[in-house]
Amino acid sequence: MSDSPEAKQETRKEEAARIRRRWITLGELLAVAAVLISALTLYLNWADKKDERASKAAENSKASARAARLVLNASADGDSRLTLKPTDPDQLVQSQTIHFPRALGIAPVDTTGEPRIEAGWFEDALKKARNAAKLPDDSIGDEKLPVTIVTQFVVNGDTHSDSAVYDIGYGIAGKWLSGHKLTLRGLSLVSHAQGADAQAKIDARWARQTKR
Fold first, then answer.
1. Is 125 helix (H, G, I), strand (E, B) or coil?
2. ∠ CA(205), CA(211), CA(212), 5° rounding?
3. Handedness of CA 198, 200, 202, 208 (dihedral sign)
4. Which pTM value belongs to this model?
5. In 10 A of CB 165, how many CB atoms?
6. pLDDT tens digits, residue range 145-188?
7. What is the C-alpha to C-alpha distance for residues 145 and 202, in angstroms, rounded to an integer?
8. HSE-up of 29 (CA within 13 Å, CB side)?
9. 117 by DSSP, 3-state: which?
């Protein structure tokens, strides 16, 4: 016995309802998927920006560390004076204090606005110390006088301080009766050091110089 028209119509209604329910379920799944994709996209963008910020922060930190590390170059201005300049042209020296080995009995020398080393600061004491140590009247090669240079400088608007041990290269010629001539040659970085440690280093270096 065939279904009545009413039964067939009811069957079609039920089938249509099932199809609608399937479409609603599929739509919900697509909506959830869209939300997940959107969330994943936001996370990936955030992660990329976080990595980029971290990378830039690391680069800025390295650049700041490089900017804060000072190395001085010296050029001879006649025989008795060295003009000092940072190797980094962005660094501007404000003031310096030069410390000498204790054995020379020289007080530290301060400079402001014109970084330099002058032979007159230590020439007499150096000659006396060389004579006491019975060092040659004439240089065989470039002689070395260890000093500590403490520098206040500005870079990119920020003030920094650097302390380092340097060797002043010099030559000496003459006789004690006729007088000695001191000629400044240049400057060589030894190491970065501060305070008592720096003083101990230049004292030890000078002691080795006078025991040759």
1. helix
2. 100
3. negative
4. 0.69
5. 23
6. 999 999 999 998 889 999 999 999 999 987 655 578 899 999 99
7. 9
8. 6
9. strand
